[in-house]
Design a protein that fits this description.
- The chain has helices at about 10, 35-50, 55-75, 120-130; strands at about 5, 15-20, 25-30, 85-90, 95-100, 130-135, 140-150.
- The protein has a seven-stranded antiparallel β-sheet with strand order 1-2-3-4-5-7-6, covered by helices on one side.
- With about 160 residues, the chain is of the alpha+beta class.
- The relative contact order is 0.15.
Length: about 160
């Protein structure tokens, strides 16, 4: 069963659409500080619905970091918007997550100093994720993707 939720722009100033089916979540948003928080909540809720409690905090963190990169680094479109398509797909052993935007500039890892307030997000995501990568898309944008595997319970000693 698919659901579709359009978020009202007049009330929040955020344009966004969320679609979900069993095992897949797709969110198409104009990225703003508010939409980053909304995406964290929605991803967390879906991970809980899918029985992936142990991935909730990590999933919310990586979505937040990747969308914040879009907010701060992607070039806006003609209307001044920075849009992103977020896809979260349940897999047999975790989740695959992809953030697509239309800016062709690839993200760069920075070496943040001790006093810097930003510049650690991409490095953090690459360490947290089980797999991580960036791909240019035929449309001229990019996909930043990762996988998070569910932690395995240790086997009992014989």
């Amino acid at each position: 069963m698919a659901s579709l939720l359009a978020h009202p722009t007049a009330a929040t100033g955020v344009r966004g659409t969320t679609r979900a089916t069993a095992g897949m979540l797709e969110m198409d948003y104009d990225v703003t500080p508010l939409s980053v928080r909304i995406a964290r909540v929605i991803v967390s809720a879906h991970l809980r619905l899918w029985g992936m409690e142990k991935l909730v905090d990590t999933g919310a963190l990586v979505v937040s970091e990747l969308l914040t990169n879009v907010l701060h680094h992607a070039r806006p479109d003609r209307d001044g918007r920075r849009s992103a398509l977020i896809t979260v797909t349940r897999t047999s052993d975790g989740v695959a997550l992809c953030v697509h935007d239309d800016d062709p500039s690839l993200p760069e890892r920075r070496c943040a100093g001790d006093e810097d307030e930003d510049g650690r997000g991409l490095q953090l995501v690459s360490v947290i994720a089980d797999q991580f990568g960036v791909s240019r898309t035929p449309s001229g944008g990019k996909d930043v993707w990762l996988t998070l595997l569910s932690p395995r319970e240790p086997k009992a000693a014989p």
